Amino acid sequence: MEQSNLIKKELAQALHAHIILLKDIDTIDHDSEEALRFIFRSLGFMLERIPEALVSDNEEDLYFAAFQYYNLLVELKSNLALSYPHLSIDLHNFPDSHVAILNDWWEKKTGLKVDEPTKQTMSIHS
Questions:
Q1: How does pLDDT run across 22-42, given as a tens digit for each residue?
Q2: How many CB atoms lie within 10 A of CB 103?
Q3: How far apart are CA 74 and CA 67, in angstroms?
Q4: How far apart are alpha carbons 95 and 80 in whole angstroms?
Q5: Looking at the DSSP assignment, which residues form a beta bridge with residue 112?
Q6: Distance (Å, rounded) from C-alpha 44 to C-alpha 52?
Q7: What's the confidence (pLDDT) of residue 117?
Q8: Whole-prediction pTM value?
């Protein structure tokens, strides 16, 4: 249960980081509109399960929401670096301390190995 509480605290921090990001955007220049739409859509997918997971006692829902959040955060950072290198939005305030725990949970649950560099679950774990 202690581990679940730590994960819940970190997911609450992720929601807070999202709120701060929204508050800190003063203006949007025309050249950044597409990138910002991409970021906010991605954040929506990343964070959509978190509110329910935070108030639920279902540990599996919490772990799945956290697993989804962590892996989509890595994907977002990678996509931003590749597709929008000119954009200076700092996503380092989004926490990611429990990635190893959640990847291990996923591998035990599904039998699929999470490939660390790509975060893809394509290989079968024996």
A1: 887 777 777 778 888 888 899
A2: 19
A3: 11
A4: 17
A5: 124
A6: 14
A7: 57
A8: 0.81
